[in-house]
Amino acid sequence: MEDLVCPLAVLPTAGGDGEGGGSGSECVSMAALDLRAELDSLLLQLLGDLEELEGKRAVLNARVEEGWLSLAKARYAMGTKSVGPLQYASHMEPQVCLQASEAQEGLQKFKVVRSGVHAPEEVGPREAALRRRKGPTKTPEPQSSEAPRDPLNWFGILVPHSLRQAQASFRDGLQLAADIASLQNRIDWGRSQLRGLQEKLKQLELGAA
Amino acid sequence: MLEGAELYFNVDPWAWFEDGKASLLTQQDYINLAPVVRPFRNLKIHLQTTDYGNFLANQTNPLTVSKIDTEMRKRLCGEFEYFRNHSLEPLSTFLTYMTCSYMIDNVILLMNGALQKKSVKEILGKCHPLGRFTEMEAVNIAETPSDLFNAILIETPLAPFFQDCMSENALDELNIELLRNKLYKSYLEAFYKFCKNHGDVTADVMCPILEFEADRRAFIITLNSFGTELSKEDRETLYPTFGKLYPEGLRLLAQAEDFDQMKNVADHYGVYKPLFEAVGGSGGKTLEDVFYEHEVQMNVLAFNRQFHYGVFYAYVKLKEQEMRNIVWIAECISQRHRTKINSYIPIL
Fold this sequence. Notes:
heterodimer; A: mainly alpha; two-stranded antiparallel sheet; 3 helices; 2 strands; elongated; B: mainly alpha; 15 helices; 60% helix; globular; Vacuolar ATPase assembly protein VMA22 (chain A); cytoplasmic vesicle (chain A); endoplasmic reticulum (chain A)
């Protein structure tokens, strides 16, 4: 009895034990072989994704820590009350937005884009708003008067270097967060694919027996 | 503080300050503030054994860095008011000059808060107590610098500093920044003139300190203006017109476009060359850090002379550095960066 749980058993089972239809069971074992190969590559992909996820998480943590430390340094240089909740409004316009797109069936990818700027055309025909831009227009779309201002300026124009560093660290962190979300989605999707394939394999081999 | 001490000021100002100087934290105190099991527990306990006493006793948990900072400020303000209540002219004018810098900070805080649509009450709570004045609550109503002057600040000690700042431009972020720096420039120049005219040991002690302050502002404004919308011409109008850098250094500095060019200007001055060389290195010191260290050295030296007002200025500035140190340590504790704790500047 082959081990149904372990997809790494690449060795083909003997094509039947000589009983049953010869070519029929050969087909099945070929199919099983293909399936197992697919399972293997999927598992390898999954493990690779997990490793990437761990790596990206560590970098995100480092960036966020750096950002907070740089903020503390900025407070040291500017004064504790000059870098805090007094400097930002309770309602903010985001500088970046998260864009979700579906690459394959059920698999969502996330991308961070600057808000106020139209996303590139290749995102796809689902973005109806974009298509308006492609059509003829007599005047270019009016620049939104609410162009998001650089949050750095909430703290003044002449801000110390540490505050800029904090902004850069948090920006990097943002991009990483989107990548991590995409990766996590891919991993979940991969796992469900894996389960599906294992089911199929089980069915196939049950059918053959 | 000794009761009759003020009568003896002209005989022995040291007596007045004996207590004051002893209340600055020592190196051992700083080491003991370092962490522990519960954030800030050690900090609170150890500060209780110093002159700070139970200043955090009434604070509800959780204790935040901001609360610690606010309580320290209140304490400093209390000590300062004590000096002021016992002072006569011209010391009282000197002390008023000292409060002007905090007033400027408060005005700017209120105006920025108005831009962000914050409530006045929220901002008033965070204003520096040393810079309090009665017209503060009305500051957020002003729409232009002229408005601000005519309607609100004309009765305050800040009025004389407005001569270069009058304009009808709306108060957006850039103009508020320009206003802040121009006010501060006028204030420093007026304070410097006052000290110089007073003459005597006060001038000997205060003038170099204020000259350093002017030069420091010129360097920091230049450094922070790289990559911003501030033009070189505008930048030059913000430099105080006194100090070692005035006038040639300032002219060169106005043309600088990056840190290295700034460093070249500083290399012409014997005092600033070593300071700039200390920037970076293994400790990752910034220019601000290096300047704070130099300021501490100058302020500590003020206590070596007698019969002058500089001791009051030096005391308040050293206390401020101490507050910065404690806030830094507290931030490191709350962010769990044990290794960075030692980046404070020791005073005693």
